Amino acid sequence: MSKNIYNEFQIKELEKNPNILSASDRSISYKPEFKIQAVSEYKNGKAPSQIFIEHGFDLELIGKKQPKRCLQRWRETFERFGEEGFLTERRGKGSAGRPTSKQLSIEEKLRKAEAKIKFLEAENDFLKKLEELERQALKKKQF
Known about the structure:
Blueprint: H1 8-16, E1 20-23, E2 28-30, H2 32-43, H3 48-54, H4 59-62, H5 66-81, H6 84-87, H7 106-142
Antiparallel strand pairs: 1-2
Protein name: Transposase-like protein
InterPro entries: Homeodomain-like_sf, HTH_Tnp
Coiled coil: 103-130
């Protein structure tokens, strides 16, 4: 995501470019076909800024460093997933999410329960000490 914040006029200008899917006040979404073509052109020796300029982008508007940042991300995606990485939605697919609740053995359940009991006992002791300190502080205030 760029550090640029685009106004309505700039967003409309960006969306005129055929290589842009959409633009918002903080981000630009590029078409997958453009990403694939840009990575290919980069591999053939073109500079990131040259690729963007040839495809109708105003570097003053999007930022001079933006082409380099985009190409870096897109090359990594291309190396990991190939062209398919740009054509399919990948967000959330790499995450395993929360672990599923597997069946625990009786020993594991007992160990887990004992650990929880120790934690709760320590928590109770702490709260008792805290209450005692608060009572002592109140008594000192009263005198």
